[in-house]
Amino acid sequence: MRCKNCGLRLSEIVGDFEYRKADSSTVTIVDAPIYRCKNCNEEIVPTCVYNKVQNYIIRFTDTRIEYRKILEAEAEDMMTIKLFNL
């Protein structure tokens, strides 16, 4: 993936990003996979990461949420679905 600002290749890193909830409050998502340009520091949150945050953010009241907690919430849902489909 290339940077939209300078055209250089983006690096995949683990970092933090701000997510604005429907009520306009802001939550910091911690240790999530994101892309960053080494040249201009432009950051892009992958669509799959953003969608997971969007789907599971309602379960949390903290202003800082570790991305792994969102993944754990998703895994719990998947296990529940699997158990009900036996």
What labels would you give this structure?
single chain; 4 strands; globular; 4-stranded mixed β-sheet; alpha+beta; 86 residues
What proportion of the residues is helical, as a percent range?
A: 25-40%
The structural class is alpha+beta
Task: List unreliable stretches of 5+ residues.
Answer: none
Mean pLDDT: 92
* Cα Rg: 15 Å
How far apart are the termini? Answer: 40 Å
Helices and strands in order:
Blueprint: E1 10-20, E2 26-37, E3 43-44, H1 47-56, E4 64-66, H2 67-84
Parallel strand pairs: 2-4
Antiparallel strand pairs: 1-2, 2-3
Characterise this structure.
The protein has 2 helices and 4 strands; from the N terminus they run E-E-E-H-E-H. With 86 residues, the protein is of the alpha+beta class. Strands 1, 2, 3 and 4 form a 4-stranded mixed beta sheet that branches. A hairpin with a 5-residue loop joins strand 1 and strand 2. It is globular and about 50 Å long. It starts with 9 loop residues before the first strand and ends with a helix.
Overview in brief:
With 86 residues, the protein is of the alpha+beta class. Helix content is 33%, strand content 33%.
